Predict the structure of Phosphate import ATP-binding protein PstB 3.
Amino acid sequence: MGETLYAKDVSACFGTQEVLHKVSLYMPSNSVTAIIGPPGSGKSTFIRCLNRLHETATRATMSGQVLLGKENVYDLNPILARQKIGMVFAEPNPFPTMSIFENVAIGIRLRDGKRLKHLSDEVEHSLVIANLWSEVKDRLYESSGKLTLGQQQRLCMARALALKPDVLLLDEPASVLDPFSTLRIEELIDQLREHYTIVIVTHNLQQAARVANRTAFFLAGEMIEERTTTELFTTPNDKRTEDYVTGRFG
Ligand SMILES: Nc1ncnc2c1ncn2[C@@H]1O[C@H](COP(=O)(O)OP(=O)(O)OP(=O)(O)O)[C@@H](O)[C@H]1O
């Protein structure tokens, strides 16, 4: 688990409007890469190109390459690409009519077909690694809608992890959570880094500073620079990065 992800000259359009322009970014395994930048700079579009979600939007096109290890993501079946490169969104979106157990089991069933012998063990394992097991083990068959927002988001993490991905893409995963739930998500990201390649989009610069090994700054569809998080925040190469990280705009 935890293959490197390499985006090479990725451009993306909606109709005739180009919203990403030749972005290249190496996202190492066992590491957290943060993507920061003002609203509309192309952060979400970029990560949606990484797991082929961009192509599901109306009039969306892309060019360039995305390599997962040595494999070209665009040569894979899109469903398999999204299994290998899982995604968690800003709004926790568990399947509301399903139980906590079913929310995780459904992905395992889709992945493994009829080999269900170890289903309960696998659901437990995914909930353990998402740091949720101890809170839900006695209520697995309750509706997922009864969980707090923070727990729902960790359930979404468990659901993505159940597919045994190499990469986890997190699009503002804590933006609707309270500070305590945010902390739990950040602790989880810190633990998961050991086994996965993690890419997180965040508006919260302090969050990038806390969780990311490397940070990339996006502006108006271009990647301006990418460095270790400490370097990007303390000695940025580009004046625009400096202006953004010091709060002069954004
Ligand atoms: N489905 C869509 N159809 C048309 N244009 C879109 C669509 N989604 C995004 N865009 C446009 O693409 C550009 C980049 O948007 P994107 O959401 O990738 O930026 P972002 O940096 O993630 O922004 P935010 O921080 O606000 O989430 C914006 O101009 C946006 O309006």
